[in-house]
Design a protein that fits this description.
- The protein folds into 2 domains: 125 residues, Beta Polymerase, domain 2, CATH 3.30.460; 97 residues, no CATH class.
- 48% of the residues lie in helices and 14% in strands.
- The chain is built from 11 helices and 9 strands.
- The strands form 3 sheets. Strands 1-2-6-5-3 form a 5-stranded mixed β-sheet. Strands 4-9 form a two-stranded antiparallel ribbon. It has a two-stranded antiparallel ribbon with strand order 7-8.
- Helix 10 packs across helix 11.
- The chain is elongated, with a radius of gyration of 21 Å.
- The two termini are 16 Å apart.
């Protein structure tokens, strides 16, 4: 069914990007993701093409979903669907028209990649925008972000400039991935910036020179990473506060689509 769905998206000319969990799997930063998450271009024409693809595959609405209007797409609401499958639960599909932290669809599409999958060629969001998408309130997303930061240097579009090295240091949130990074990019040890902890450079120097790691320096880096994660979690919470309030209002006024309604 998933292959049929993506084929329908292609046949009908739907402008979409695969995002979130399945995208991280394709980039090698995760091993499994159950749901499918899509970002569709929030225009009326593209919305209509997407609805046609859902109908091609007998999709239905699922849990807390507003009407699939262009206005709701552009306001950042999430839309939840289920596609029939051999399993009793079906295939869950989450859709957005404006995800957080990633700018416009046109900008993201210009940096996207067609990736070969078991479902055929799938238009997949670029790695750097994917990192921004994953900066959520879920603590388990941050090890995935760290792996994506390492994977950036394996991408054909990565120029491996000092800016790329600095970007990676900003987006590694685990000590094991940081150690791998310094072992593969020892010149990053000399990078310094106001928004990075000075302890990161010191820890890198100790690793690169095979010195014994100073426990206090390792602790400082761990604490800096935890503060960064907390800041990002709080920012994501603030982003969703208004959208969740709107969703509650829509539910209270009976403007959500009934669970199980065919598209």
């Amino acid at each position: 069914m998933i292959a049929n769905f993506f084929q329908s998206l292609s046949d009908r000319g739907v402008e979409y990007l695969l995002i979130s969990g399945q995208a991280t799997v394709l980039y090698g930063a995760a091993t499994f993701s159950e749901d499918i998450d899509l970002w569709i271009n929030p225009t009326s024409e593209n919305r209509d093409r997407f609805i046609a693809s859902l109908r091609d595959c007998h999709g239905g609405f699922y849990k807390l979903t507003p009407e699939l209007t262009v206005e709701n797409l552009r306001r950042g609401h999430g839309f939840h669907f289920v596609l029939p499958s051999e399993t009793e639960a079906g295939i869950f599909l989450d859709v957005m028209g404006q995800p957080p932290r990633v700018g416009s669809f046109a900008t993201a599409a210009s940096a996207a990649r067609w990736m070969e999958t078991e479902w055929g060629a799938v238009h997949t969001i670029g790695l750097k925008p994917l990192v921004e998408l994953k900066k959520t309130q879920r603590l388990e997303d941050y090890p995935v972000i760290s792996k994506l930061a390492l994977a950036w240097f394996d991408q054909p579009e990565c120029p491996q400039t000092p800016g790329d090295l600095h970007w990676a240091l900003q987006n590694i949130f685990t000590l094991p991935e940081l150690r791998i990074f310094f072992s593969e990019h020892p010149k990053a040890v000399d990078l310094s910036a106001a928004d990075l902890s000075s302890a990161i450079g010191e820890l890198g120097r100790q690793w690169v020179s095979t010195q014994d790691v100073t426990e206090s320096v390792e602790r400082q880096v761990s604490e800096w990473m935890q503060r960064r994660i907390l800041e990002l979690q709080q920012a994501d919470r603030r982003y969703w506060r208004g959208i969740i309030a709107e969703l509650k209002t829509l539910r209270a006024t009976g403007k959500l689509v009934t669970d199980g309604t065919p598209v």
